Amino acid sequence: xxxxxxxxxxxxxxxxxxxxxxxxxxxxKAITIEGxxxxxxxxEVIENALIMFENGKLTFVGSANTKIARSGTIIDGKGKxxxxxxxxxxxxxxxxxxxxxxxxNDDDEVGAMNPHVRSIIAYNTESKIVESMRPNGVxxxxxxxxxxxxxxxxxxxxxxxxxxxxxxxxxxxxxxxNWPSNYSRGRWWLGEPNVLKENKNYTKEVEELNNYxxxxxxxxxxxxxxxxxxxxxLEGVTNGTKKLYVHVDYEKGITDAINFAKAQNITQLVIVGxxxxxxxxxxxxxxxxxxxxxxxxSRPKGDDHDYDLxxxxxxxxxxxxxxxxxxxxxxxxxxxxxxxxxxxxxxxxYGLTKAQxxxxxxxxxxxxxxxxxxxxxxxxxxxxxxxxxxxxxxDMRTNKLDKAFIQGRDxxxxxxxxxxxxxxxxxxxxx
Length: 431
Known about the structure:
Layout: H1 2-17, E1 31-39, E2 45-54, E3 57-63, E4 73-76, E5 81-84, E6 86-91, H2 128-131, E7 138-143, E8 150-158, H3 164-167, E9 168-178, E10 183-185, E11 196-198, H4 202-222, H5 229-233, H6 235-239, E12 243-248, H7 251-263, E13 269-273, H8 281-286, E14 291-293, H9 309-320, E15 324-326, H10 333-336, H11 340-349, H12 354-359, H13 363-369, E16 386-389, E17 401-406, E18 409-411, H14 416-425
Parallel strand pairs: 1-4, 1-5, 6-7, 9-12, 12-13, 13-14, 14-15
Antiparallel strand pairs: 1-2, 2-3, 5-16, 7-8, 8-9, 10-11, 16-17, 17-18
């Protein structure tokens, strides 16, 4: 019996030692950061800045030369930098823990048309991957489902919470649609060449979407019985209160998606991926359509494309006047989400200013997600979601956080990975 008790205690301690970092306590005392260089996220930079926040909200953002009483705990920021928290859109953080363990995968629902699937209720706040984002300054994310033609509905969260209800910044913000590809690859398992060829079912697949949306509008106009949850979930998209994110890369697909939105009177459209968005830049501008651009650190998709097209695409679109944010979907996307600031940093080498690059993962993304009234920049009245960094946060060599705050809470920057780093960095020192 004694051995059994010891075993149970050991298992409990082991489980507890690998638990999520406890969310930070609610802010109860004012905090002042003085002397740092503040990168506001809206293009403005303040040297020798003064930033104050209380009850989770920014109360002052300006020069430290301003004659104003400092309040609460004062943090010396001299020689350091302050940034608004970075935002990772189109992410599956908290929906998948271990790819090889199916029981931990909850990002893809069965079926093709799933606008009613709500990713937020599957979001795991205690994911070890989620907490590993914070040491690089990624403090918020749009939790997005995958799969099917209509994947489901996303929500915007902050990355320090006990449960999804506490995490939500904007619940059910948008529906995500995977646009049919006008190209398809040969089915290698049937011996077909693995090369791109025309998708002969493209027109049929687009027509199916038109019919589905038309049926949803007819249903929502009369709300007939029996209740149809998928159709009801599209009501916000068709009446203009909810955004439609169309995941599409190629020129024809982007053009057809915009025409589809016009035909369905969808007024809030966002292009996700947008690999050939520069080819239809005038159409995007005419219709005021923003782009969440694919991962910067990727290879060109066409043999005749510039080798550095993915690196310079953000600069081309920004210079053309399109509202652009960066997303990081693709292989190992959850673990790679921590590299979001370095994707933005790469765009500086290809023509953007550092302030413009910062906006790609802060205010621009907040505007696209519809949360710029709360986050995305250091402005009075917004959430005190920010961090203090020893150097340039967009440079992997100097991105080293001292402190991070989410809605005014002083959050832990320790993760399972930092614990392992400390453990093994000491292993051979005394040998």
